Amino acid sequence: MKFISHGAAREVTGTCHELRIEYAPGRISRVLLDCGLFQGRRKESAEKNATFAFKVTDIDAVILSHAHMDHVGRIPLLHKKGYRGPVYCTYATKDLAAVMLRDGGYIQEQDEEFFQKHLKSSMIAFDGPLYTQEDAAACMKLFKGQNYGDWISVCPGLRARFFDAGHIIGSAQVLMEIKEQRGSGAARVLRLGFSADLGRSELPIIRDPVPMQPAGVLICESTYGNRRHEEVGQAKNHLREAIVRTAERGGKIIIPAFSLERTQEIVYDLHVLWDWKKIPPVPIIIDSPLASSVTDVFMKHPECYDQEMFAQFLGKQHNPFQFSLVSYTDTVEQSKALNNTPGPMIIMAASGMCEAGRIRHHLKNEIENPKNTVLAVGYMAENTLGRRVVDPAVGAIKIFDRMYQKKAEVVTIDAYSGHADMDDLDRYVAAVEGLKKIILVHGETEQMEPFAKRLNTSLGVETLLPARGEEIEI
Q1: Hey, which residues does 133 pair with through a beta bridge?
Q2: How many secondary structure helices (H) and strands (E) does the chain include?
Q3: What pLDDT sits at residue 33?
Q4: Same domain? 16 vs 80
Q5: CA gap 359, 134 in Å, rounded
Q6: Within this chain, do residues 210 and 167 fall inside the same structural domain, yes or no?
């Protein structure tokens, strides 16, 4: 069997890994683990996103771990280029993917229109948007919802099952059982684990990740392979402090947040803080039609929630994502009106890394006002606008075609991270029985290399850090 990473190899975005399985002499099954969007430098990301390094029609199946765009975001393009096989995922992921991909198509269309009108001279020469809302809707017929724990016959030589990854609702780790037959020798059976994006214990709303079952090989994420997070319990305190401090200045709190999961977590904590009378009565604007749609999907999948969520809200028939201070925008006009509305107020908008959507417009309008606060609550990948916003060494940032001085206060709350940190990852890998080989993906090299060194020292297991396009024989 061969493993080839076509994305998230020594980087964090664009997850797309290929397995080639010789299930009978000369007969090969080809499977993708995720198929996500690259995010970062605009030209580089556009070039990576526009093409595949494999023949699309040769792929037999896609196993999808969850609905974040850096994992699901290129499936419409895969379909557009001729893929007609199944996309296996959990039921919650299927529902979330429908709204995430439709919004992704809308953003592609809007960005194309904006650049044609305002920045045509700096446009990247591609034939229209990567995909449209129509393309996003068309690919959904490929999605096959599955229950956690059930075995799925994916294709010849491969069956798989999903286990809760505790990252977002519907997120899954994957355990695969692979049967290979080469030449006249005996068949070989291999158990292969894929952590996908592994969550943290004690996060609000969703259940904790479950341990990986016994596996000989593990494909493991490494986003925070060399970094410890703050305790989850500190998140509410830091959120309250930033809100109180900014409200006293009469400023706006601008929160770049992924519409999927992070927005719901922040609204949940704001609801709790308001119930506890810990924050002032400032308007909370969720400036994202996508977040509204995603929140509707959240309410359809209580099977993904933890006990605390049920006891505090659902068991009392309370909606955790709606209370008196919160309003959701629907139209562009409502979003634009916020520019002329004085603070204090809280505005949450996507995208979480500030690479698309309405957040760029809010940053453009608000980042030069020292009364305001930009509050980062999630991971900012290398070369994204979000990374430049939170980097204290960067004094000015380019948004669209103009430079803006960073005069607003910038606060990062690390405790909200939805990814396992170095201690979580060490415990997770150490608990996998029968492990002989580890393949690290979804991490920048400064996080991956120390993690690999620790694994080699503590477990004595071969640990690989493949480059993009590199073939690994398993």
Answers
A1: none
A2: 14, 22
A3: 98
A4: yes
A5: 24
A6: yes
